[in-house]
Amino acid sequence: MAGAAAQDDAEQLLHLKLAFLAGEPPACILALARKAGGGSITPHVQKFLLENCTDTNVYGRQNSTYTTTIFKRIISEVELSSDIVIDALYEEFAQRMLSKAKDSLLNKTNHIYKEISFLSSTHDNVSSSLISVVARLSCSSNMLEGDTGCSLWPSSLFLSEFILSYPEIFSTKCCFEVILTDGDTSTLTNMKENMELNNVCIKLEDFEELKESKNKVECKYLSWEEASESDLRGYQPDIVLGADIVYDPVCVPHLVRVLSMLLRRDSKQGEVNRKSGDELEMDGPVAYIATVVRNAETFNCFAKAAADAKLSAINIGSSTAPSNFLPYMLSYDRSSVQLLKITLSS
Ligand SMILES: C[S@@+](CC[C@H](N)C(=O)[O-])C[C@H]1O[C@@H](n2cnc3c(N)ncnc32)[C@H](O)[C@@H]1O
Questions:
Q1: Assigned CATH for 147-344
Q2: What is the pTM assigned to this prediction?
Q3: Closest CA to 335 of 316, 320, 323, 318
Q4: In the chain, where the domains are located
Q5: How many of the other CB atoms lie within 10 Å of CB of 307?
Q6: CA 187 to ligand 1 center in whole angstroms
Q7: What residues line ligand 1, using a CB cutoff of 6 Å?
Q8: What digits encode the pLDDT tens for the residues 175-212?
Q9: Helix, strand or coil for residue 143?
Q10: How far apart are alpha carbons 192 and 157 in whole angstroms?
């Protein structure tokens, strides 16, 4: 019993640390800190935060403002509840306030570095978990830089959990999002930085060479409005992935046109993976688009344009729900995400 309780405590502290590294909102960090302390942010939890949640994550990059905000919120909460704030936390916070001007100079890029750790349960003990994949990200902290493409969206987390949950769909396939594309140049620049943070090589030009290499991706400018048949001819993906790309009615017809071009290809190539009776098996190229329906009209506009282009779009988000790899991310609402499986209508 005591062993199980200690394991549970260790799990709560692990979740707290991973949430901090993932740059979760301060309110979520405080909720996890309370949970780890059995209802209040105890001296033990404060000490853990000081020792494990420092500014420097993702290979030495600074998130100073974020850390200071969290320490400030913790001190306020503990003082308000008349509990003990440990001296080391006061001292650390005081140091931070003294060097605030310097920190704000260091943080002039408005970027925050996040580490998203995907956890999978171990088979022998469901209460303990293993980190299966870590993704390191540079994100815009204010959304001014790089339009919307430099932020972390729930749809991309959902799509990541889907890929990790069903590796059989993706292994040995050519995925269009391993050819990473965007129509915004600062998003492309940030995308390249993120590939480097994760030690993934970027292949720029020769597509044939890319196909032969496993640990390489291509980062490519692709505007849905401008993309032509000839631009996409070289790509014959088995799978097209998209996260949070259905949100602007003006772009919808262009996005649907690009999807149609990518999904329409030599019919012979699609036969390879046919297996009967499995919803996930495909006879031809498939697009998986994760999306949050923020505006029903925009979503209906996408559904109509897809149907007009003879594409079938089915929400498989609940029938093929991915496993929960992010139990510590309290800000991530997976129930808000739909996962559309898009194929050519037969
Ligand atoms: C909400 S963000 C999602 C980014 C990324 N897929 C993710 O999940 O984090 C939408 C992305 O679509 C891109 N986008 C919007 N309109 C586009 C267009 N017409 N052509 C190409 N990309 C476009 C934006 O630049 C932005 O990066």
A1: 3.40.50.150
A2: 0.86
A3: 318
A4: 2-111, 147-344
A5: 13
A6: 8
A7: 147-149, 153, 155-156, 182-184, 187, 222-225, 243-245, 251, 254
A8: 766 889 999 998 999 999 999 999 888 876 555 555 55
A9: coil
A10: 19
